[in-house]
Every structure is written in C-alpha cells, then in structure tokens.
Design a protein that fits this description.
Largest sheet: 10 strands, antiparallel
Number of strands: 12
CATH superfamily of the largest domain: Glucose Permease (Domain IIA)
Strand content: 15-25%
Number of domains: 2
Helix content: 25-40%
Oligomer: single chain
Distance between the termini: 147 Å
C-alpha cells in the first residue's frame, strides 16, 4: 500500500536483500535438520552406534579380564620378591634388594605420553602404566635371580672345594697324637708352633683329599715334611699331607673330595708312621679340627679329640712331626 497514491504496488527486493533472505532460510533449515538428527539419535541409535556400543562393551569386558590377570601377576611377583629377599638371599647370606632399587623406574613412562593426548585415556593409560611397572619390576627381579644363581653356583663350588672331611677314614685304626697350636718339639724339646694335626696309624693307610682341588706340589719336601702333597682348593684354601709313604698323584692333577692321594708313612723328620695334616686359609694356618664337624657327630668329634696324647707324655713311640 503506497500511502501517497493509496494503491497497492508490487514490492521488488534488491539482490542484497534476496541473498540475505536466502541465507536466513538456509541456516534455519540446517538448524532444524541438525536438531531433528540429534533428537532422533538420542532416542533411536543408528546401526553404527549399535555396533560401536557392542564393541565398547566387549572392550570393557576384556579390560576387566586383563585387570584381573594383571592383579594376579602383581601378586605372584610380590610373592617371588618376598621369597627372593627372605628365603633365597637369606640362604646364600645375601643382602635383600633395597626398595629404592625395586621401585626404581615405576613412575610415568615417556612411552605413554602419546596416550595422554587421547580424549579419554583413562582405561588405556592405566593398563599401559601398570604393564610398564610390572615390566620394570620383572627386569629387576630377573637380575636379582641371575645374581642368586651365580652366587649359588659359586657357593656350590665353595662347598665342594672347602676342606671338610677327615683325611683318613674313620673306619681305619688311627689316633690323634698332636693337635694344632703350641707344643714341645719332639726333636729339640723347645716350645714351638704346630701348624697342623698329627694322625698316627699303621703304614699304608689311604690318605684322602679333603675337598675338590688341584695338586700344586707332590714331591719330597726340603723342610722336613718328607713326601708331601699340597692341594689348592681355591677360595684361599690350601691343604698339606706330609710324611707320606707313597704319593699317588701328580702336580697339576685335579682331585675330588675323598680321592686317594697317597698312603700313610714315616718320611721326613718324623718319630713314627703318621700323617701331618694342615689347612691354610689365605696363607695363614688354621685349626683343621674346626673343619671336621661337617662329617662327624658331636659324639664322634669328642671321641676323636679324646684320643690326643698329652704333650707331657714321653715322645718315644709317639708318631709326631717336627713342625
């Protein structure tokens, strides 16, 4: 309605006005479509959503199973750690692995940093970090068990090599004529140190090696020991078997505990047929009687010690060594 002419006239829009109307209409139509889609999907999931939801449920179930398995692994690892510190290492006299070492590297891992950029990293990040912790602890535990194994091997070698039996069988007729320590020398009468023990008996009794080792000398001594055998057992132990009648081993020969290395005799500076037996640890003499407990009962040990001939007795007819 034109107010000036009072007539109806057709209105014509400019190109800009037409574009504006079209834009508003399009935006309104798109907004309506989006609202309808969200409303529909909220109450009526699409087939793809159904598939995703099913996959998510399966993943959650697998996560629960994995979490249970990880808990079991962690419990077994904790039990192994407990046995390691309180049993295995205790037997071998090893110090427990410090907690600072066992827990080292169990914090956040750089390999998991990319997972933190996910929109919802919760479950995946938790599992990944737990696996990293278990992996680190397993590496430390593996290193500890390897250390225990090497110590056990060394300890087994030590137990086999350590002189720990009587060099003469307890079934043979022998008696102890001189103990370790100071005594009156049977030849000079002066009080001197006796670095071993003297075991007397009939000629020809078998003399046994008291621990695994290697013969380092099997010859007639220039120091009054007569025919003697020296055995290096490793770990600082060396044994001497002196005044032998016959030597049955050679230098460099490997011996096992109990192997016969000679026979009882009366060679060198000796007052009668007997064996002079010494044990040296790191070059220093030690009392061989302290090593017989490993194959003698307390009663047998007391009986052996009671056979000692008192040093006050006459030396005539008593088999003793000069040293």
């Amino acid at each position: 309605m034109n107010p000036e002419t009072l007539r109806y006239e057709r209105v014509t829009l400019s190109p800009r006005q037409r574009a504006r109307v079209v834009a508003i209409f399009s935006v309104g139509l798109i907004a309506l479509a989006v609202l309808l889609r969200f409303g529909f999907e909220r109450y009526y999931p699409t087939p793809r959503q159904v598939i995703y939801e099913r996959e998510n449920n399966n993943l959650r179930a697998e996560y629960v199973a994995l979490n249970s398995h990880l808990q079991q692994v962690e419990a077994e690892l904790a039990e192994l750690r407990n046995r390691d510190d309180r049993f295995y290492r205790s037997i071998l006299s090893l110090e427990p692995v410090p907690s600072s070492i066992r827990e080292a590297g169990t914090g956040g891992s750089e390999s998991n940093m990319h997972l933190r950029n996910l929109r919802k990293p919760g479950l995946v990040l938790d599992v990944s970090e737990r696996i990293d912790k278990i992996s680190n602890r397993m590496q430390i535990q593996s290193s500890s068990l390897e250390n225990i194994y090497m110590e056990a091997v060394t300890n087994q070698q030590f137990l086999a090599s350590k002189p720990s039996i009587n060099p003469i069988s307890s079934g043979d007729p022998i008696w102890l004529t001189s103990t370790y320590g100071y005594r009156n020398d049977p030849f000079t009468g002066k009080r001197t140190a006796h670095h071993g023990i003297d075991l007397a008996g009939p000629y020809g009794l078998a003399i046994h090696c008291t621990g695994d080792g290697v013969v380092i000398s099997s010859e007639t001594s220039r120091h009054g020991y007569g025919k003697e055998v020296l055995v290096d057992h490793g770990f600082g132990y060396v044994t001497r078997y002196a005044h032998l009648q016959e030597i049955k081993v050679k230098q460099g020969q490997k011996l096992q505990r109990g192997e016969v290395l000679g026979t009882l005799g009366n060679t060198g500076r000796s007052t009668g047929p007997h064996l002079h037996y010494e044990i040296r640890k790191d070059g220093s003499p030690v009392n061989p009687m302290l090593f017989f407990y490993e194959n003698l009962t307390p009663g047998e040990y007391t009986q052996l010690a009671s056979r000692v001939v008192p040093v006050e007795n006459t030396y005539q007819g008593v088999a003793m060594s000069q040293k």
